[in-house]
Amino acid sequence: MNTDAMPAILGGTPVRSQPFPDRRTIGKEETEAVLRVLESDCLSAFIGGAGEYFNGGREVRAFEQQWAEREGFKHAISVNSWTSGLIIACGSVGIQPGDEVIVPPYTMSASATAPMFYGGIPVFADVDPTTFCLDPDSVASCITERTKAIMVVHLFGRCAPMDEILALARQHDIKVIEDAAQAPGVYDGDRAVGAIGDVGGFSLNYHKHIHTGEGGMLVTNDDAIAEKCRLIRNHGENVHDEKEVDDPVNIIGGNYRLTELQAAIGIEQLKRLDDILDTRNELAHHFASRLNRVPGLSATIPQGRRSHAYYIFPFLYDADQVGLSRDQFVQAVHAELPQATDFESTPLEQGYVRPLYLSRIYQDKCGFGPQGQPWAYQPDVDYCYEKGICPVTEDLHERKMLLSPLIREPLSTSDIDDLADAIDRVASHAPEIRDALENSAKPASM
Ligand SMILES: Cc1ncc(COP(=O)(O)O)c(C=O)c1O
After folding, report:
1. How many Cβ atoms from other residues are within 10 Å of residue 321's Cβ?
2. Between the N and C ends of the chain, which has fewer C-beta atoms within 10 Å?
């Protein structure tokens, strides 16, 4: 690539004008599976009472069994969304009003709100600047006698430091829930994420690696937790009389059930997961090797078997070294590439979500109820959600993190070369770009 060529933002010819290929998720196999279920006339076999169909019908059970066998989980329990799965997971480990749950602030909102459905109070620990997952030292500093669980999020598909977190949990008799929404098929050594802790699972919403439109899959190796999850999924109160429930805490349930149609789609999607992960790993390694040659940009690739799913590709940006603000850099790179039509065709995003504790419910300390529950369950504790409590997360979000949603199928390494070429060209013309953007931002003189 000719990095000397004039950058597009200064009037040069863009690196690429042809749109990046769209993500296609559904093939003829899913279509045939849906037709098979439609023809059976049974779109969901669940019955919210004791009996053969308390745990769903043929497709639901097959989907669960295939997922469990694939990764060696003792139990896989499908649900109608991973938000439902997180709520069920919190119920299954016995979260009660006033219990504290340690969560990262850099995640989708449901990781932190799920404990509140049982009156649990989120306490935010900071993330590690390299893995972007919970920092075990920060977790340790948040543990109190009220801590009931740690919600580990395998953010962007990268496995969090499970050994350190499990050691803390064992030492303090705390449960570990894994939010592996973005990390299906990811391993920490020979352990599949999701059930390394007590319970966890995956999202199957449309934007995830594989999907059922909406949906999720809980996984655990613990029989009692699995039983509780199945009760909460499907009106556990209705089977309480018939079943010997060892621990009757939190068994009232909802309707968190996946349909037969979705499960049939899920079975076909699961067959695609290995290819998707292989593609994303190949593209990610290629992109990282190009990025890491540019002063001021750095991407860390974890080593080991399938340790990253690359839901989105994260890397670090140093504005001083590059010589452009993060915003200027993104503007200039985007000028080199076709206009994005949605999130998945966007070359670069600045940061992920605003640190969760800065949102209104934490600032006002009011999740539900007139007294400001769940915080009202601990009236003597002054929970702090001020700006500054998780400085690493804030620094990543406000200054250092860039994300690329383009590290996905069906892109090829030559598509990724276009993205990397655009980055190279902008980085090598930083001073001219900065001058031009700063001059155009100045008001015209009178
Ligand atoms: C980390 C994380 N947790 C939880 C969720 C919620 O999953 P769902 O959309 O399936 O309810 C998501 C979905 O975006 C997620 O990315």
Report:
1. 14
2. C
